[in-house]
């Protein structure tokens, strides 16, 4: 059976427009850095704010509103698939690095793609172009369908962030926006000394002096120090293997995961779901103020994080321009990562999810779930590589190589339109069965 050319051209152009809109948003971030509107330190702080505040707020709102006792099972396949494709990608990357003698950073570029801001912005752009209308079931509210799609991508982002926490330290180091960096740890260690100075008998006061009365601050500080010492002593008394296990589990205690847990608790608990998401007349007493606050803060995430991506790329390019020897990118490395991220995973994922959707009952009947799962493993490498070069003390030449690689990766982001069109047509075919 033949296919009209317009059936491919229309979604292809729509996907291309959405991809270019993401690229233009990144360009705005580059301009922000070029005109010194955002400093290096400020960009890191904004990035950490995105991951530790905006993303958890978005998770609480999106998951809480879409989760209930009937839809909770929808997210189980996403959890399994997210863990599976990330670990498989990492395994392929490790083998490729050993067999083809590729640089060590290649396995990270293959394992961790941009799972947060890029997919969310892409979905928003696709909804604007109208190409997603063909997979929205008749009678289904379009805005609710798009909310579900975003919540599916957010679950994938949470899994990716958690795996970065758990595996990152054992690969190289985790990203500065996703974990406490060295500067933060130094700040945390010095906080105790500063607090002792400002709250001590000498009465030193400055702009960071606590507003709480001294009679409250001192006992709280004493209690914190006593608890820290006792916890440290207890951990040191445990067997080494137990300490390693607890340390590994602690890596998962990150802000996106906590936001996911809060959203899941609210969504799966009927009284809480009613309080947060029902109309005020139906018992939703938190909806108009608290839920709206979470929504407003969460909606800052996607665009702000993409702007930061542009700022980071600009900073890397400045370093590259200033360096006398900026190094050369291995063509094998670049080709391998691009093939994996933009072609291999779409070629594997699209038919796999199509088969699961049409021939099994493992997935729900929501076309948005199928479409989201087909796209989750595609896209450029995550900006984790920019942070890794700084926190691990990589050689300057390697930093320049990685900066070039990421610049090219995001410059060819529109290549994802092929995966978008393939996912869209496969989902449409699955709906028609």
Automatic annotation (TrEMBL):
Region annotation Disordered: where it falls in the sequence: 171-204
Annotated Acidic residues bias: 177-196
Residues spanning the membrane: 12-38, 73-97, 252-273, 293-313, 334-357, 369-389, 401-424
Protein topology in the membrane: Multi-pass membrane protein
Signal peptide annotation: none
Keywords in alphabetical order: Membrane, Transmembrane, Transmembrane helix
Subcellular location: Membrane
GO cellular component, one term: membrane
GO biological process: transmembrane transport
Main location: membrane
Entry-linked Pfam families: Mem_trans (PF03547)
UniProt-listed InterPro entries: Mem_transp_PIN-like
Protein name according to UniProt: Auxin efflux carrier
Species per Swiss-Prot/TrEMBL record: Karstenula rhodostoma CBS 690.94
